Amino acid sequence: MPRNRILQFLVVALTALAPAACADQAPFAATPVDHRWADGALPEGATVFDDGYPGVRNLDPDLLHTLREAATDAAAEGVVFYVNSGWRSPERQNLLLRDAVRTYGSKEEAARWVATAKRSRHVVGDAVDLGRTDATSWLSEHGAAYGLCQIYRNEPWHYELRPENACPAMYDDPTQDPRMHQ
After folding, report:
1. How many CB atoms are closer than 10 A to CB 1?
2. Strand blocks (E) in 10-54
3. What are the CA-CA distances from residue 85 to residues 17, 21, 92, 93, 177 (Å)?
4. pLDDT by residue (tens digit) across 44-83?
5. What domains are there in the chain, each with its CATH number?
6. CB-hemisphere CA count at 13 Å for 4?
7. CA R_g for the chain
8. Is residue 150 helix, strand or coil?
9. N or C: which end of the chain has fewer CB within 10 A?
10. Are 40 and 55 in contact (CB under 8 A)?
């Protein structure tokens, strides 16, 4: 009988202490994996702070850190960095390219908007497409100070990190980018 009392006491004591010991941690819960986002697709409203999505989480760590730093500064002006597209799987990139060929009528015209999986900076996590014009306007004014550069004139939403903090001259579109032809 005393042994049962000791066990009861321990259970009560540990139950009372557990919330205080784990106050800074989320409660354990099985979170189902949502495979809709595994290829890098993102839901509307995803931001640079949404690590739950591979399209954000798999961005180059330096790019993601710099985006978050800029986004924090932009937030002081009421600007939010929504991510339309970040990291993409090669399969998703190929799907986007096939869709662009259908939309624009040829591979040549589609290449002005979507790269192959082999050439895309998104597939390696080095590019991000931001949504909403307030964010892209803010970055066009302040991005170079962070090394965040618009690369293509026809894509004001597409940004890449240039750590030397010197943004290169923009290409009119990706077909003029030598990286797309290597």
Report:
1. 4
2. none
3. 44, 39, 11, 11, 20
4. 999 999 999 999 999 999 999 999 999 999 999 999 999 9
5. 37-181 (3.30.1380.10)
6. 1
7. 23
8. strand
9. N
10. yes
CA 34: distance to chain centroid? 17
143: tokens are 């991005």
pLDDT of residue 64: 98
CA distance 178 to 73: 33
| Model pLDDT for residues 107-150, shown as the tens digit of each residue | 999 999 999 999 999 999 999 999 999 999 999 999 999 999 99
- The strand pairing partners of 158, in sequence order, are 129
Distances (CA, A) of 28 to 17, 50, 75, 169: 16, 20, 31, 49
User: Please, how many CA atoms are within 13 Å of residue 91, restricted to the half-sphere of its CB?
Assistant: 5
Q: Which two tokens stand for residue 160?
A: 């890449």
Question: What's the token pair of residue 54?
Answer: 């591979």
Strand partners, 159: 128, 150
Residue 62 carries which DSSP code?
H
Residue type, 77: E
The model carries a pTM of 0.79
DSSP summary character for residue 45: T
The CA distance from 167 to 8, in Å, is 66
* One-letter amino acid of 148: L
